Amino acid sequence: MSGGGAGRSAAAAARRAARLLAVLGCVLTAEAQLTGVLDDCLCDIESIDDFNTFKIFPKIQKLQERDYFRYYKVNLKRPCPFWADDGHCSIKDCHVEPCPEYSKAANNSKELEDCEQANKLGAVNSTLSNQSKEAFIDWARYDDSQDHFCELDGLCLEKRVFYKLISGLHASINLHLCANYLLEETWGKPRWGPNVKEFTRRFDPMETKGEGPRRLKNLYFLYLIELRALSKVAPYFERSVVDLYTGNGHEDAESKALLLDIFRDTKSFHMHFDEKSMFAGDKKGAKSLKEEFRLHFKNISRIMDCVGCDKCRLWGKLQTQGLGTALKILFSEKEIQSLPENSPSKGFQLTRQEIVALVNAFGRLASNFYLTGSEIEYPAGT
């Protein structure tokens, strides 16, 4: 298994991406007039932008920097189940390169600089110190002592929702790709930066024959689904038996307090998607639709094993599991409401991986809409 760092370097990368995406987003908003009410819900884009910018993103960004949310365990070597694939990307910068120990690298400034740059660009660090390994063993021992509920719930309205979620996930990946694009690969250091030309190709109304704005609206819809899940899962974390264990009691308490504060903010949003309108037909038909939903989503998860770029595969797996966790929450409301206060969970349980994926996936979406006034230097020729 490989350890993916979703930590401080990830938060820094998210801040840079947010600044770039703000400019790119403004370009599209001006050209495509991306405003108004979204389909299948009574919510408008302007309200989502304001709520995310002034309430949610600053806090979710801070939470992502906490140790509990900085590490995501993932198998990057699982074979592609659909076609023959050697698992290699032709661009060396797509790989997750382990960094040397800091003390050794200090004598080689170029090696250290390259390592730090790789962290900034990919937000992935597969190197673990002995102290970190011992801490992870302790975390795993603690997690193993808890009970687990492990199934992704998982289409008319249901099928439209599924399409929009996958389209939104694709749009999110494309936005971050355009915001931090490999502009040039020479014998020296590769040059990364925002690629407005690529952004235009993927999202401009003229270039995409009207599909671009719809893709962006689906991104907002995905955000709403995960926002709704955060507002629904609060009772699970409000119980005293649930903590965000890292072995540092003080930091664990602060992390939980910040998470609960975010939950309170999500509840204050007044335009939530109503998930109760889904699977609301006869019981047999609803059960069949829900199973179809689950199987389609499972295939999307497996497709991530066919992505050649390690960094893309890591973030793809994390965002897919984050969405899967959100769906699991939305379709488990009764189980969450009936959880015992001071005893182990029965009927509903979130693993460490699911919690980390949920928060980081939502943080990734939130960074798409966060607006800043920073100046952006556009790449030449765009």
TrEMBL record:
It is found in: Endoplasmic reticulum membrane. It comes from the Eukaryota. It is a peripheral membrane protein. The keyword Nucleotidyltransferase does not apply. Residues 1-32 form the signal peptide. It holds the Pfam family ERO1. InterPro entries: Ero1, ERO1-like_sf. Its cofactor is FAD. Keywords: Disulfide bond, Electron transport, Endoplasmic reticulum, FAD, Flavoprotein, Glycoprotein, Membrane, Oxidoreductase, Redox-active center, Signal, Transport. Belongs to the EROs family. This is Endoplasmic reticulum oxidoreductase 1 beta. It comes from Willisornis vidua.
